[in-house]
Design brief:
Bound molecules: iron/sulfur cluster
CATH class: Alpha Beta
CATH architecture: Alpha-Beta Barrel
Order of helices and strands: EEHEHEHEHEHEHHEHEHE
Number of helices: 9
CATH topology: TIM Barrel
Helix content: 25-40%
Largest sheet: 8 strands, mixed
Structural class: alpha/beta
Radius of gyration: 18 Å
Amino acid sequence: MNECRLVGDDIGYCGLPFAGRKVAVVRWYYDPLPTNCVADWVCAGGTGAGYPRFAHRKGPEFGYKNLAVFYGACTFNCLFCQNWHYRWDRMSGAKASAKDLVHAVDARTSCICFFGGDPTPQLPHALDAAREAVERAQGAGRILRICFETNGTMHPQLAERMMDLSLASGGCVKFDLKAWSEPVHIALTGVTNTRTLENFARLARRISERPDPPPLVASTLLVPGYVDEEEVRALARFIASLDRTIPYRLLAFHPAFYLSDLPTTSRQHAARCYRAAREAGLERVSIGNLHLLREDAY
Ligand code: SF4
Ligand code: SF4
């Protein structure tokens, strides 16, 4: 994504000295379902959408769990990174193969979410693990949804492979759209948003292959002073121009990393962004992290 050229002991922009396939800087843990996934308000694990083919229950999938797979690298370097401590993972040198990961999937695991950091820099590893895990689960007649939560900067061919797996398994691809304006995006993440928006548009073309549960979901973090209703309106217009049914989650901001001196998102800010997204034509908009919203206007 960032066209790094590594020589000797160099590390790339994402912090990796190598582009791993056999092993990756990755760790994982279980989350009981329903979990606080960015897509939990529309996905099979959170709502039972796609039951009985893709979900065990008609509602939230109590009794089952999500395997959360956390990759320790990212192609962005966001000032507000909420998971900034992934940088310690790569320094610890902990690595695992795709097979190690597959062995973590048991009979009560009904979905895998590949996130981080971001799965992008080590995506071949994630795709290998996902493919094998799905084959095993389907061979045993079990549901296993494959989901990705990403900044969307992977090679377009890899984006298509993610979508292949999510479509076939009942999962979804969740894109974080950080900002519409490129200068704002570069200021916040260090990187252009061109690849992200192109990949999002590319994957939106495949929604009709399996519209329920929704295979593509968008989210935006409402960073006070940076991501206002005009940013959200422009992003929402872009999403609606592709498909008005794409679910769009607006997330309240929590101060972290280099933006630890900002307040959380205000109710007024979130309400303005919600209205802007609806006015842009999107049918499914929601606000996440409600507990973080504060009263006073920013
Ligand atoms: S990993 Fe997928 S199916 Fe499971 S809770 Fe998250 S979005 Fe829903
Ligand atoms: S894309 Fe996500 S993980 Fe990567 S730097 Fe930004 S907030 Fe952190």
